[in-house]
Amino acid sequence: MMKYKILIFTFCLSLLAFSQNKTTYTYAIKGLDTLKLDVYTPENIKDNDNLPVVLWMHGGGFSGGKRDNPDEVKLMNYLANHDYIGISISYRLLLKNSKTGSGCDCPKTLKQDIFRQAAIDYLDAAKYIIDNKETLQIDPTKIIAGGSSAGAEGVLNAVYLKAFFVDDISKYNNVSFAGVFSLAGALVNANYINKNNAIPTVLFHGTDDNLVPIGHAPHHYCSEDRLGYFLLDGSEVIADKLYEIGASYYFYKVIGGRHELCQIPFEQLDTVFHFFNKTIHLKQTIQTKRIVTKKP
């Protein structure tokens, strides 16, 4: 009998751990791509609640991945159980079925356009949720932009290089972000970060990432004679820039870490969102750089 009581108790706990509602919306149709987003809302949300939100962009080298990857779903469940609304989006995978992928045979001009289109897809998703803030019950002043790998690149460029990539920026006048959560991401040019647009930023990156550089270096470390030679500013450069201008950041740097730092760090999510609570909700300025060495 005791065995069955334990099983029932465990089952009830598991239900509590995933007490959220999921709804799917179409935020844009672009050519043959119908772009959707999944909204994960706490089950106990009240009618007059307007909650902070994490708008998440999955990774996959602009050729794969999906908004409901198991880790993305796990992250959304975490958020919904911590008084956030989690939103995971699809976007155009413009390198899907490409022979070159995003490596050194992919021309620089194509890479830059893919970065641009990913940023625009992300901004369109953000605009959609803001335009529908009452239905979704989100607080449009507390949107944390988050992403992994290719998704982190799309997110960082949407947040900090909107003026660089968007021709008609007035379309996104109502779009703003309260924070950024980047896993192994990079910017086209960190010099666009300034005191006026800097927001609390969380960065995870490995020093030996061979795909997305942690510093100022070519994407995939392509040599100058390759078509895919495309310089990026990774997390180290971004953190240094935020430090210089006195803006808040949390930089988790792994000596010897490779591109596995793009994986969602579930064991550190409490620390990440404690940082966002202090910097976004309590308006504190915090600059943290945590350096660890990868275990053999």
From TrEMBL:
Keywords: Hydrolase, Signal. InterPro entries: AB_hydrolase_fold (IPR029058), BD-FAE-like_dom (IPR049492), GDXG_lipolytic_enzyme (IPR050300). Residues 1-19 form the signal peptide. Residues 37-153 form the BD-FAE-like domain. GO terms for molecular function: hydrolase activity. It comes from the Bacteria. This is Alpha/beta hydrolase. It comes from Jejuia spongiicola.
